[in-house]
Amino acid sequence: MNSAVPLFWACVILCLFLFIFAIVLVQGVAAYIFSNVVLSEEVRQLEEYFATVGRTMLTLVMSMTGGMDWREPFDLLAAVHWIYGVLFVLFIACSVLAVLNIITSIFVTDAIEVAHMDMDLSMRGELANSRKAVKELRHIFRQMDVGGHGMVSSAMLERALKHERIRAHFALLDLDITDAVSFFQVLDVDTTGFLDMSEFVMGCLRLKSRTNLI
């Protein structure tokens, strides 16, 4: 949708480009007809393609898009003057490159927008999962903190892990704990022998992220 505005202005510039070239070619053809003795068949062919600005623009568009073989208009313009033949070829080359650039820019812009949307959705999904994990870890901590002191020791963690329900909670968070003592030591970064809720949650999230990377 964001590509619509650049596409609109690109089309406007292309139409202006067509109009300017058409005026130049019409004036050149008209001057050639009036200043030279031109055969009626040649006049008919020139008028067929370049009689008016509108018809000349149509000839240019059809030549540019493959609606007609542009060799015949080129031969007629080259007969008028070589410079008009060069201008015609230059128009075809520039217009084809312009159309290709417009199409490429539309696809590239749309692809970038889709990539940004995917990244945004992925980040939102990860954020939602992190919030859910934090909530679950806080719930586990409260279950281990039977005294309600806000601290958990190695022995308390070891006792809690004997319960299948607690182990199931850890398993849901991709935390497979085989050695309670080693697990506690990894979480106890300040080596106080106790874990508060913040230390426990952050330590488990850190281990969870390492597991996901592996």
UniProtKB/TrEMBL annotation:
UniProt main location, coarse: membrane
Residue span(s) of domain EF-hand: 175-210
Keyword Calcium annotated: yes
GO molecular function terms noted in the UniProt entry: calcium ion binding; monoatomic ion channel activity
PROSITE patterns linked: EF_HAND_1, EF_HAND_2
Keyword Protein biosynthesis annotated: no
Localization: Membrane
A cellular-component GO term for this protein: membrane
Pfam family, any one: Ion_trans
Transmembrane regions listed in the UniProt entry: 6-34, 82-109
Keywords: Calcium, Membrane, Transmembrane, Transmembrane helix
Domain of life: Eukaryota
InterPro entries, A to Z: EF-hand-dom_pair, EF_Hand_1_Ca_BS, EF_hand_dom, Ion_trans_dom
Bilayer topology: Multi-pass membrane protein
Protein name, as recorded: EF-hand domain-containing protein
Organism listed in the record: Noctiluca scintillans (Sea sparkle)
